Amino acid sequence: MRFLLCFILLGLIGHGANAQDSFSASSPDGNLKVQLSEENEVVRYQVFWQGEAVVNASEISILPGVAAKIQGSNTSSKKEVWQPVWGQFSEITAEYNELTLDIALGTASAKLITRVFDQGLGFQYELTGFEQRAEATLYCEYQLQASDALYFPTGENPPAGPLVISDIPNETTQPKLLMPLVVETKKPYLSILESDLFSAPGFELIDLEYDLDKGAVVASNKTRLSGEKIITPWRVILVNEQIGDLVTNTVPLNLAAPNQIEDPSWIKPGKTLWDWRVHGYTTSDGFTYGIDTESYLRYIDFAAQKDIEYFLIDASWYKSASEGHFELSDKLDLQKVIDYAAEKDVDLLLYYDRKQGVYGDEALFPYFESLGMKGIKYGFMGEDVPFTRDAITRSAASHLLIDFHDRPLPFTGVERTFANAITKEYCHAQQDSRKAFTPETFIKMALINAIQGPLDMNNGNFDLTGINRGDREKGPRITDSYVSTVVSEAARTLIIHSGLVCIPDAPEEYLEKADLFEFIQKQPVGKWDESRVLQAKMGEYISTARRQGDSWFVGSVHDQQGGTLEIKLDFLKPGKDYQITYYEDTDETHGKTNPETYQVRTGRVKKDEVIKAKMAPGGGHCMWIRAI
After folding, report:
1. Which of 237, 244, 426, 464 is the right S-S partner for 536, CB 3.0 to 4.6 Å?
2. For the Glycosyl-hydrolase 97 C-terminal oligomerisation domain, which residue ranges apply (predicted)?
């Protein structure tokens, strides 16, 4: 009898060990907690912020439909400091607690790795023993609260939202969700996205949708099973109390693979002039810009004069492409332009458009390098994951920066792994889709699209009157549709993070407003020590500050209502005096009727002073602050 009781007791103890109710990991500061469990042979997770559930019990799997059995777990912690090649910060701390579950999936086995940071978390599967299976799907549900509201990109249209979860079943057409998805809860803000797709060969782009049957946001992407082991991209949930902090959140970078370029010293972020939007502009001395040698020499002269690192030559420098050959424009002496740029110490970037013919990707990047180009702007490459990955690695092998144009893939975190992936047009740029691009749209994109990484948005037009009048060949199709002020344009170049800030107007316009252009010219693009979003409200305003050394640049913009933001200089050092230059709208400035009126003034400030940044409708406000 005693033996039988001991046997039953041991059996109960063993059952408890194998069927533990839940496994959990918390952030180093204790505010964020994730809890995982096995329920009916399905692994589920929950996310808690300060004790309150922000994601309810949700399935996460790598082989959906296959019985999952948690076999064991282990935990660890890590803290390291690393330096990106370029970015919003010169130094990033990666501190997290990690939980790893060993899971049996039929004959296969998996590890589910969960890393919990103070500002978010990531899930990643490692799968082995899948010889008899052809395909795997990384599947993740997000069971949100009924009162939560969603915001998300929509390509060439303004970002969507707020879309309240409880209203989705009543929509006549179910929304097509895109990353990054922003979730406004009662407290805090979340963002759902992916990181390090680059390091997961075989996986397709994430498919994000709202599943009416499950009543949840669902993310999935598939891969063909091959080799001995599959590692998935990271499923990421960012968590911040302030919406603007999602944009400077470093969790996606911390989850991305470290730098893979042995010597990245050739990778130099900076500003670039750009010719495409200037075509048709006529100067006061009668010169008209176009795709020709003389126009390009003018850009190079201005870049050299104002210490602008790059000049980007866009489409139509060649008529067509075929295997191993470009048919150059007869209006352009490209070699003369290349030689002149080298003489003036200005680096060149060159556009390539697959719609004009295929040169051949294996030969393309070495050819651009042989011309002395420092980078490639790649147009119309298609939403193709392997193609994008190959373009990044091939351009790196040829020491070329790469700027992805025209609906690129959001390879979030790739700028850590391959820092030559300098920017991408995961937005719609200035003067594109003018019916959609309003001050409100800009603010939404700065708070949504920008979460996934650097953006090529082409801010910084100064000839707003001429553009709205229709003076440019590549201007907006609808006249008087461009609502902005020149100060807002300057502020936007700072607010949108990019390793390559592309300024799109004519040199003469920047020379005419040289005192305002100073704010753009002096920015150490991509070489920031620190970045902060000081204030932000979706679609209404955003104020961003970036520091290098003892100098701060602050840019703010407002919607078409205009308004005043009180900006407290609590980020300055105590006991120091600072010189400040203000670049401001005036009382007469208006984004529609008087966009080019501005004022520049100087002064002195100290820590904790409050600046009242008054902005016109569609306007902006800029400050350059440096220690005395």
Report:
1. 244
2. 527-625
**Euclidean distance between CA atoms 312 and 320, whole angstroms:** 19
Contacts of 265 (CB under 8 A, 6+ apart): none
Q: Which CATH number goes with the domain that contains 150? A: 2.70.98.10
Q: How many whole angstroms separate alpha carbon 430 and alpha carbon 457?
A: 6
Looking up tokens 């499950």 gives: 214
Report whether 323 contacts 357 (CB < 8 A): no
Q: Token pair of 611, please?
A: 């600046």
3-state secondary structure of 507: helix
Single-letter amino acid, residue 626: R
User: Is 89 a member of any domain?
Assistant: yes
Contact indicator for 132, 52 with CB cutoff of 8 Å: no
Is 313 in contact with 275 (CB distance < 8 Å)?
Answer: yes
Q: What are φ and ψ of residue 478, in 5° steps?
A: -100, 120
- C-beta of residue 118 within 8 angstroms of C-beta of residue 32: yes
Q: If 0-12 CB within 10 Å is exposed, 13-18 middle and 19+ buried, where does residue 91 land?
A: exposed
How do residues 155-179 score in pLDDT, each as one tens digit? 878 999 999 999 999 988 888 999 9
Domain that holds residue 522: 426-454+461-499+514-628
Residue 472 CA to chain centroid, in angstroms? Answer: 29
- Please give the backbone phi and psi of residue 369, each rounded to the nearest 5 degrees, phi first: -65, -40
Residue 1 falls inside a structural domain: no
Query: Is 563 exposed, middle or buried (CB count within 10 Å of its CB: 0-12, 13-18, 19+)?
Result: middle
Q: Are 106 and 230 part of one and the same domain?
A: yes
What is the chain's alpha carbon radius of gyration, rounded to the nearest angstrom?
A: 26
For the stretch 357-416, pLDDT in tens is 899 989 999 999 999 999 999 988 778 999 999 999 999 999 999 999 988 999 999 999
Q: Give yes or no for a cis peptide into 180 (omega within 30° of 0).
A: yes
**Cα separation values, 355 from 241, 312, 322, 377, Å:** 44, 19, 11, 14
